Amino acid sequence: MPIVHRKVLAVLALTALALGLAACGREAAAPEPVRAVRTQVIASGTAGATLEFAGEVRARVESNLGFRVAGKMVARLVNLGDAVHAGQVLARIDPSDYQLAEQAAKAGVASARVNRDMLAADYKRFIDLYDKGFISIAQLQQHEAAFKAAQAQLDQARAQEDVQRNQAGYAQLVADAPGVVTAVLVDPGTVVAAGTPILRVAQDGPRDVVFTVPEDKLTPVRAAASRPDALKLRPWGSTELQPLKLREVAGAADPLTRTFEFKADVGHADLRPGRTATVVLAMPQAAQVIKLPLAAVAEAQGRTSVWVLDPKTMKVQPQAVQVGGADGNEVVIAAGLQPGQEVVVAGVHVLTPGQQVQRYVDPISAGLKQ
Predict the structure, then answer these.
(1) Domains located in the chain, CATH noted
(2) Quick one: pLDDT at residue 72?
(3) pTM, whole model, 2 decimals?
């Protein structure tokens, strides 16, 4: 026999011997343990979901205040967050030009008054001359017309003086109602046009809570929020619920977020504008719904599913479901299950399709029964 063939046969013999020894040393795989799981037989019931929205407390009236005349702002007397009262001066612009215009208007009034008084005296003398027959009626009417024109010029000058006095007064920005400064928009030294917003003031009074609702929930939320006592407010950092009343719903969606703005009236509650709060909405009770504990639902590969137990074979299989909401610590199942099915409610994270399981028995309860 050639030497090469003898070497090949020797290598094959050694390989077979090694495989045999390895097979003898390998232990048999242990059988997979039968896992104990908690189960629940599905029964239909009633559910009233509770929706929560993040909201913000705002004043019912929040005004952008600005000067009614143009000019250079020389002083701002309040800062962000300051409380203001009605009649308080908030800012000033340079009043020099308006004061000069007021003085000119006063001088115009004085001139018109002198002219009116002179023509009034003339008119009185010409009345006496007419009574004595020294002048005609036409001459008297001319002097009467001149006197009335002078009186009209005086009235015009007085009105112009009032306008200039008001213009000078508008050089001061005055709060027209008590409130809180929520925004400072212009600093001193800026030349502003008439009507340019300088400060934003949230007026004291009724408060609103503003929150937004997605497009797909607009109709059910509006219907539910319109029911008495359906809306509640829970301020941030507090556990107390305060009643709310739906006041306004936006007619169009926000172009950026595609959500609709809701405003609910919280009355004269002691809540500062800008405070964060949670709006709690109790949805109507729905009958013939299926509810499961949160632990019974698993999420895998973008699908929501539960594990259904076959009581005959005691094996479990995943079942896709559609979640319709939450009711406290339970999940409302909208589709995918039927009453009478047995579902695993604890231990779902360690199960595999077709796995053999057994129902969990509480040893304490079992001991008490014995």
Answers:
(1) 35-47+286-369 (2.40.420.20), 51-59+207-282 (2.40.30.170), 62-95+177-202 (2.40.50.100), 97-169 (1.10.287.470)
(2) 95
(3) 0.58
